[in-house]
Amino acid sequence: MRIALAQVDCELGAVRANVDTARRVVREAAARRADLVVFPELSLHGYALGSVPGDESVGADDPRLTELSGHGPDVLIGLHEDGRMRRYNSAAYLSSGALVHTHRKLYLPNYLDWEERKHFSPGHALRAFDTRHARVATLICNDAWQPVLPWLAAQDGAEILFVPTNSAAGLAPGAIDTAVYWQDLLLNIARLQQCWVVFVNRVGEEGKASFWGGSRVLDPWGTVVAEAPRGAESLTVVDLDVDAVRRRRREMPLIEEARFGLVSREVNRLMRDVAD
């Protein structure tokens, strides 16, 4: 399976311009024989939505989006989703001109300069899903920082985890080095869940945020097999051996014994004892 990491900038609130950028990138990826193009979180809208007058959210099955997957490769793209009653920070997986799956970000950061609860509702489900190439799951940015979610995705059969992200540096004095944290986090996920991890981060400036890029792919042993440059737009193409997941999980079956009954009992106990 050949994946193209679309490490791009976007124009805040300018859906039409961002769709045009995505179309150009998808066509370039098609020329490089990619099977799938993965874009960053909110790549159709930008992040600082509080600065955008009006509501520019779109449906995940908007014809402008489904058309993107009509050029050959499948497409995973981030958007401010119009869910009718609510709005979501979502990633839509599109194939052959149709919507296959939508993941709605589950854990919305609401600290420092991240105020996602003002603009989005949290999603309510995590599902692995089948594509033409592999069984996959999506974790949008902060979702990947919740240890239970990669485990759940792997238990649902995901062979590839997509992590579209808007990770920035220098938002506050003394803030953590997000690039270092992501390096360690992605390594942990790939090794413990024994799957491919595809991390695609945005670049560019928006308000006080400076998005640093550094998109990469890790194999089921935790080795970084491809990495995009820091701070610059790029299209990085990498081949994945999906069968490597099965080989790795057979030689060291870390995730085979899930013990769902144990997990369910302990979660139910905590739900009784601690307010959700």
Q: Care to describe what's here?
A:
There is one protein chain. This protein is of the alpha+beta class and 276 residues long. Strands 5-4-3-2-1-17 form a 6-stranded mixed sheet, with helices on one face. It is 25% helix and 29% strand. Strand 1, helix 1 and strand 2 form a beta-alpha-beta unit.
List the helices and strands and how they pair.
Elements: E1 2-7, H1 15-31, E2 36-38, H2 63-66, E3 74-83, E4 86-95, E5 98-104, E6 110-111, E7 114-115, E8 129-130, E9 135-138, H3 148-155, E10 160-165, E11 168-169, H4 178-193, E12 196-201, E13 203-206, E14 209-212, E15 216-218, E16 224-227, E17 234-239, H5 243-251, H6 260-273
Give descriptors for this structure:
6-stranded mixed beta sheet, alpha+beta, Nitrilase/N-carbamoyl-D-aminoacid amidohydrolase, 276 residues
Low-confidence stretches: none
Looking at the structure, the CATH topology is: Nitrilase/N-carbamoyl-D-aminoacid amidohydrolase
Gyration radius (Cα, Å) is 18 Å
| SS summary, helix count | 6
Which structural class matches the secondary elements?
alpha+beta
The figure for the number of domains is: 1
Portion of residues in helices? 10-25%
What's the overall geometry?
A: globular
Q: For the terminal residues, how far apart are their CA atoms?
A: 41 Å
Count the beta strands: 17
β-strand amount: 25-35%
Oligomer: single chain
- State the fourth-level CATH superfamily: Carbon-nitrogen hydrolase
Largest sheet: 6 strands, mixed
Question: Whole-number average pLDDT?
Answer: 95
The strand line-up of the biggest sheet is 5-4-3-2-1-17
Name of the CATH class: Alpha Beta
**CATH architecture label name:** 4-Layer Sandwich
Order of helices and strands: EHEHEEEEEEEHEEHEEEEEEHH
